[in-house]
Amino acid sequence: MLFRLTILDRQAQFREFSCMLDKLEVGFDFLNTVVAGGETLIKVLLIENGKESELPLEVFDGFPCLEPIQQLENEWKYLLSQPVRSISIIDQELIDLTRKRMHQCEANVSSQKLVISRFKALLIRAEVSIRDQSIRSRLILHYNLEIDRYEQQMAKSQLYQQQVARRLDELIQV
Are residues 75 and 95 in the same domain? Predict the structure, then answer.
């Protein structure tokens, strides 16, 4: 890359010159060295790949920048060379919470099955042991409605449990 400079030197003379440098950081450090030497930058052009860019003069304050940039570059290289953790802390927490949700789903389905089996037992008992036809009919209707309601709830719970299981699989495979 080519740096083309116009400066005002310490003797109040305008000077123009160009220099070819390998790295942008080296060029910036050179410009800071010029300012630190008492020269005033008037215009700085950077020419690279046939494109010309005028650099803002206020960023060159006379303090070296190459060393801090190299330190930053070394830090980034070090950080980028470290192995990436496969699962972040947040992802692990999400997996744990999804597993808890899965256990809650399983417990919910189990309790619904238990309630259904108890209503079925009550239904059989009502059919067999209650002699009054009107009471028996109302109890049978009531128990059948409750069994249907809990079976619908259980079907929804099982569907939700399947969704949670799929989500857990997705989280684990990431």
Answer: no
List C-alpha distances in Å: 28 to 31, 98, 108, 150: 5, 52, 67, 75
Alpha-carbon distance of 64 to 29, in angstroms, equals: 5
Which pTM does this prediction carry?
0.49
Whether 107 and 162 map to the same domain: the answer is yes
Instruction: Check whether residue 77 and residue 94 sit in a common domain.
Output: no
Residues 108, 162: one domain? yes
How far apart (Å, rounded) are the C-alpha atoms in residues 21 and 45? 13
Look at residue 62 in the predicted model and tell me its pLDDT.
Answer: 84
Of 65, 72, 82, give the one whose Cα is nearest residue 25. Answer: 65
- Strands across the sheet containing 2-8: 14-20, 2-8, 40-48, 51-54
**Could you give phi then psi for residue 82, rounded to 5 degrees?**
-75, 145
